[in-house]
Amino acid sequence: MASNWEEFYTRNPKPADLNESERLLKNFVEKHAKENVKVVLVTSGGTTIPLEHNTVRFVDNFSAGTRGAISAEYFLNYGYAVIFMHRLKSVEPFSRHFSGYKCLDMLEMTTTNNTLSISVIPEQVDKVSSILKKYKDTLRQNKLLSISFTTLSEYLWLLRSTCQTLASLENQAILYLAAAVSDFYIPSNEMSVHKISSDGPPSIHLQLVPKVLKPLVNLWVPKAYVVSFKLETDESIILKKARQALEKYHHNLVIANMLQTRRTQVIMVSEKDHVTLSLTEEQISKGEEIENLIVSDLVKKHESWILSEEST
At a CB cut-off of 8 Å and minimum separation 6, what does 154 contact? Predict the structure, then answer.
């Protein structure tokens, strides 16, 4: 009898552009394997649950993909090539610095001889030029591959394909699973074809999303360093929940964080111990980001793990 995750892939059609995504992934991974460059998959943003095939309504979550986008930049700083698998229209590396109307405050217009020009205001030049240089260097080195999803089904299909492509890198790959994946969904064969009528309250039956972390660790990419996230609102259970996940799925690390303090503090939970990473008040006032501490610590853990794997 097929397991839940196998049934999911049988019952939910693959995305129309999956073959093209797989081609891009294959080329990206092969290039960096030849250059002996470590590769990290960063998943980012939330997944939608359509209520109709011709989707007008859907269930969503609050994730904007901020943690994933910030972390991707720090992984690039440490020399990793990054596969950034993100929710369409969520926050992205580099462009995140210029989102919203505030970015317009960085620009000024001047007219000379009836010719209009736009430039960055002097006090923002250093910031913009620094970010632009990193972005251009990343493009030149082909270090960042962005692929997107919107729905839960698209995410799970893309995740499996990406993992299977990364498997060839063995311990040189990290999976940094920061996406906020929906816990419930409506199977494709139970979804309304057209917009649900609003004549009365609808009756919607949600099913549990299959846990794909187990096949991911055991089958799809068994030699990679796998990191998951655990978000809680009750501090008394957060460590227990993180350890339960490690015991159940046998991956390498859980990054546990409280909803209220997720921007300033996390707990790095491994099989052997747990370490709390926190920003100081001074760091917060300077605009420093907890993801810098997370990625720095994670890179050290990955290096140590590779050495331990190669010595056994």
Answer: 15, 47
Contact 208, 222 (CB under 8 A): no
Q: Which helix (H) or strand (E) holds 123?
A: none
Which is more confident, 207 or 164? 164
Strands, E assignment, the chain: 39-44, 49-50, 58-59, 81-87, 107-112, 115-120, 144-149, 173-177, 184-185, 207-208, 225-232, 253-258, 265-269, 274-278
Q: Please choose, from the candidates 33, 41, 68, 80, the residue with its C-alpha nearest in 3D space to the C-alpha of residue 299.
A: 80
Q: What distance in Å separates the CA atoms of residue 249 and residue 227, rounded to the nearest whole number? A: 11
- Rounded to whole angstroms, the Cα distance separating 308 from 16 reads 41
**From CA 180, how far away is CA 231, in angstroms rounded?**
9
For the segment 233-281, what is each residue's pLDDT rounded down to a tens digit? 999 999 999 999 999 999 999 999 999 999 999 999 999 999 999 999 9
Amino acid at 285: S
Q: Tell me the Ramachandran region of residue 114: left when phi exceeds 0, alpha when psi lies from -120 to 50, beta otherwise.
A: left
Helix, strand and coil in the chain, % to nearest 5:
45, 25, 30
CA separation (Å) from 156 to 43, 163, 176, 185? Answer: 11, 11, 15, 12
312 pLDDT above the threshold of 70: no
pTM exceeding the 0.85 threshold for the entire prediction:
yes
Integer Cα distance of 281 and 130 in angstroms: 25
What span, in angstroms and rounded, lies between the C-alpha atoms of 99 and 93? Answer: 11
Residues 6+ apart with CB under 8 A from 283: none
R_g of the chain computed on alpha carbons: 21
Burial of 165 (0-12, 13-18, 19+ CB in 10 A): buried
Helix (H) or strand (E) holding 234, with range, is none
pLDDT digits (tens, 9 = 90+) for 191-241: 778 887 777 787 777 788 889 999 999 999 999 999 999 999 999 999 999
Q: Residue 69 corresponds to which amino acid?
A: A
